[in-house]
Design goal:
The protein is an alpha/beta fold. The protein has one domain (3-276): 3-Layer(aba) Sandwich (Rossmann fold), CATH 3.40.50.300. 43% of the residues lie in helices and 10% in strands. The chain is built from 15 helices and 6 strands. Strand 1 (7-10) and strand 2 (13-16) form a beta hairpin. Helix 12 packs across helix 13. The chain starts with a helix and ends in a 13-residue tail after the last helix. The mean pLDDT is 97. Bound molecules: adenosine-3'-5'-diphosphate (A3P). Adenosine-3'-5'-diphosphate (A3P) is lined by residues 42, 44-50, 126, 130, 133, 189, 219-221, 224, 248-251, 255.
Length: 288
C-alpha cells in the first residue's frame, strides 16, 4: 500500500487512516471539554496504553471493573480517533482520555476549559525501537524497512504524529500552568508507586497507600500483558498481530542498546540535539 493509502495528512502530520478520518478529526476539533476531563498526551510508543490502565484506577480509587470489562480503546478513548464518537456518551465523569495530538492541534474548548493533562515522555531512542517493532505487527502501518531506513523516517518525522522533537516542543511550550503535569516513562518504570502518587496528587485524589499498591500491581507490565482488555489480543490479527511482535513487547528502559550501532547512535543523537538546540528546556535523559 502506498503512503497516501495508509495515512491522511492533517496539518502536515501523518495519521493512520485505519483509526482516523476527517470526520473523527472534525469531531475532535468540535469536542466540548469539561473542566474535570483528564487527558494523557503521549507521543506514540511512549506509554499510551499504560495510561489507559492507570487513569481510570487513579480517578475511581482503584475499582478494577473498567480494566477488567472494557477494552482499553473504549475505556480511555483517543480524542482524535474514530471510536470517540461511538463511546463518548458512555464515559462517566471525570472522563479519562488519551491523545497523540501536538498541542497546537488540540481543540479550542480544551484551551478554554480547566481539563488537566498528563504529558508522558519517553527516551526517543526507546520510542524509535518500540515503534520499529510496532510497525512490524500493525497491519495498518507501512512496512518499516530496515532499522536504518526506519531511523531515517523517524528522524525526518515521516511517521505517524510527526517528529518526536516537534511533539515534545509543542507540549513544553504551552500556557497551561498548573493544568499540565510532566512525567517520564522511565520514572514510571523505575518507581510506579511514586509516579502514581504524583498523578493522584495532581488530579486531586487522596489515594491510600493500599490503593496505590493495588493499582501498581494491576498496572504492571506482566499483569497488563495477561489482561485481554489491554493486550490487544481481541483485535483481529490483520490489524495487530501479537505473533509478529507483541504489543506489550518488553516494557523496559534502554532496549535501544540492543539495536543501535555506534554510527546510528551518533547520527540519532546529533539530529535530536540539532532539533532542540534553541530550546530552553533540557531533556530528562542524557543523549551523549
Ligand atoms: P516496548 O515496545 O518498548 O515494550 P504505547 O502504548 O504508547 O504504544 O507504548 C507502547 C510501549 O509501552 C511498549 O514498549 C509497551 O511494552 C510499553 N508498556 C505498556 N504497558 C507497560 C507497562 N505496564 N510497563 C512498562 N511498559 C509498558
Amino acid at each position: 500500500m502506498s503512503s497516501e493509502e495508509i495515512y491522511l495528512s492533517y496539518h502536515g502530520v501523518l495519521l493512520p487512516k485505519e483509526t482516523h478520518s476527517l470526520e473523527s478529526l472534525r469531531f475532535a476539533q468540535d469536542f466540548t471539554f469539561k473542566d474535570d476531563d483528564v487527558v494523557a498526551v503521549v507521543y506514540p510508543k511512549s506509554g499510551t496504553v499504560w495510561m489507559q490502565e492507570i487513569l481510570p484506577l487513579v480517578l475511581n480509587g482503584g475499582d478494577l471493573t473498567p480494566i477488567h470489562t472494557v477494552p482499553n480503546w473504549d475505556r480511555v478513548p483517543w480524542l482524535e480517533e474514530k471510536r470517540l464518537e461511538v463511546v463518548v456518551d458512555k464515559l462517566a465523569s471525570p472522563r479519562p482520555m488519551v491523545s497523540h495530538l501536538p498541542y497546537h492541534l488540540m481543540p479550542p474548548s480544551f484551551l478554554t476549559s480547566k481539563a488537566k493533562v498528563i504529558y508522558v515522555m519517553r527516551n526517543p531512542r526507546d520510542v524509535m525501537v518500540s515503534s520499529y517493532f510496532f510497525h512490524q505487527m500493525a497491519g495498518f502501518l507501512p512496512d518499516p524497512g530496515t532499522f536504518d531506513e526506519f531511523m531515517n523516517s523517524f528522524l525526518e518525522g515521516k511517521v505517524m504524529f510527526g517528529k518526536w522533537t516537534d511533539h515534545v516542543k509543542s507540549w513544553k511550550h504551552t500556557e497551561l500552568g498548573d493544568r499540565i503535569m510532566y512525567i517520564t516513562y522511565e520514572e514510571m518504570v523505575q518507581d510506579l508507586p511514586a509516579a502514581l502518587r504524583r498523578m493522584s496528587d495532581f488530579l486531586g485524589r487522596d489515594l491510600s497507600e493500599e490503593t496505590i499498591q493495588k493499582i501498581t500491581e494491576h498496572c504492571s507490565f506482566k499483569t497488563m500483558k495477561d489482561n485481554v482488555m489491554s493486550n490487544f489480543s481481541l483485535v483481529p490479527k490483520v490489524y495487530l498481530d501479537n505473533d509478529k511482535s507483541p504489543f506489550l513487547r518488553k516494557g523496559v528502559i534502554g532496549d535501544w542498546k540492543n539495536h543501535f550501532s555506534s554510527e546510528q547512535l551518533a547520527k540519532f543523537t546529533s539530529v535530536i540535539d540539532k532539533d532542540l538546540e534553541k530550546e530552553s528546556f533540557t531533556l530528562p535523559w542524557s543523549l551523549d
